[in-house]
Amino acid sequence: MTFAEMPQDESGWARALSTVRIPVLWHTIDELSRLRDNEQRLLARDISRVLLRDPMFTLCLLRFLATQHRAGQQREITTVDHALMMLGVAPFFAQFSDLPAVESVLAGNPRALEGLMRVIDRAYHAALYARDWAMLRHDIEPDEVANAALLHDIAEMLLWCFAPELALRIEAILESDTSLRSSEAQRAVLGLALMDLQRVLIKQWQLPRLLGSLMDETHTNSQRAINVVLAVDLARHTAKDGNAPSLPYDYSAIQEFLKLPEREAMERIGRMTLLAKSGRDWYRIEAVPGLAPLGRL
C-alpha cells in the first residue's frame, strides 16, 4: 500500500489521495510528446482526442482547472476542449510535462497493472458509447456526457494505483461469488463503497458539479445521467463476458433509450465497440516498450 496506514473512511481516503501524484498512461505521454513537436499547429481537439483514452490524465486536467477559477467565469469547465481553450496549448504542456506513468508506478505489480488497464479500457468503451448516444439525441454538449462516462469509475482506478493489494482482494471476492454486487465486495474490504468515496473526491477536489451529477447513478430523472449509466453498464458487462446474462437487458434498455429499431441500435453499438477495440494497444502491458521512469514531454 502507498499510504503509511489504511484510511478508515471516505474522508480519510480523500485526504490520503490528495497527497499523491496521479499517474497517467505511458501511451498518453508518448502521444502528447509527438504532438508537441507541432505545437504551433495544434488545436484543442487534437489533444482532447488523446485524453479521451486516458481518464487519469483527464482527471488531472480538470482537477488543475478547478484551482484556476478566474474572475467573471460563469460556467464550470466540464470538457477537455474547454479546459484547453482556457488554459492554452503551450501552458498545458508546461503544466503537465512531468506526470508519472502508471506503467512505472505499478511496474512491480503486473497483476495490479492488468487490473487497472481493464478498468481504463472499460471506461474508454463507456465514453465512446455515451458520446455517440448523446450525439444521436442532439445533446447540447456530448463531450460532457462522454467525460462523465470516462470518469465514472475513477475511484476504482485510484485504488488500483495506490492500494493495489486491496483492489486485488475485491476482485478475488467478486470472482469467487459472481452474484455479489461490486459495492458489497468493496464494503467487505474497505468498509465503504467506492462510489461514496468518489462523491467525496468530487467535492473535495472541486471537480465540476455537473459531471458529478452525471456520474451519480441515483439521478435517474436525468436523461443525460441515464445515458452515462447505460454506457457504463454495457461496457462493464461486455468486459466481463460477451455472453453475460445481463446483456439482453442492457440492449433492450439502450434500444428503448435511443428510440431505435433493434437492428439499428445493435449496429450502432457494434460500430463503437469496434472503434474502442481498434485502440486497445494503449491498454496492453506488452505494448509498452519498457517500464522505466519516463522523461519530460
TrEMBL record:
HDOD domain residues are: 22-221
Q: Which InterPro entries match?
A: HDOD, RNase_Y/CdgJ
Pfam families registered for this protein in UniProt:
HDOD (PF08668)
Q: Which PANTHER family match?
A: HDOD DOMAIN-CONTAINING PROTEIN (PTHR33525:SF6), PTHR33525
What name is this protein filed under? HDOD domain-containing protein
